[in-house]
What does this fold into?
Amino acid sequence: QKEVEQNSGPLSVPEGAIASLNCTYSDRGSQSFFWYRQYSGKSPELIMFIYSNGDKEDGRFTAQLNKASQYVSLLIRDSQPSDSATYLCAVTVDSNYQLIWGAGTKLIIKP
Amino acid sequence: NAGVTQTPKFQVLKTGQSMTLQCAQDMNHNSMYWYRQDPGMGLRLIYYSASEGTTDKGEVPNGYNVSRLNKREFSLRLESAAPSQTSVYFCASSEGQSNQPQHFGDGTRLSIL
It folds into this structure.
């Protein structure tokens, strides 16, 4: 059974600090990694995605991949109260069209 | 600029009733997906359609059927609703294979009594 695991949290971070979210995956062949943000009662919204060939930075967000240890991280710099949400990690599996999703980490940014 | 549109947004059914959830996308995407999301669990794939004219089972297909009506529309049908199908249902679409990001509709909150 291929799995994606996330700490459910909540992860509490002071405003202005760096929030670090992690996601571990079991399929060593996974090639694409996605981070989504989901506000309570809303649908998942794409934050960023990376492929197995490297990390990516987009504004305050950075996604990093550690293939050897099979985890992917999302760093949020200068955290804002509006970043308070559940962050979902999704990873490709060997099927060309399916993703495996983690249950999400709830992030709380304290003013 | 609608993206992915789902109807209805809320629905309450009695056990044994049937209904169809509708989904339409205006991004000219090839692939469409139906997920359910339950508290404390990740999104679970019910069915997907890689391209117009094809559908395939996902992780939790039992009790559901789908129809890819055309490139824009992908419907999910519950033939005989059960309380275990109480969930939030999301439709998503993507340009193609799983290395492309999926874009989600607003969801349908479905309660089965």
The CA atoms of residues 48 and 58 of chain A lie 8 Å apart.
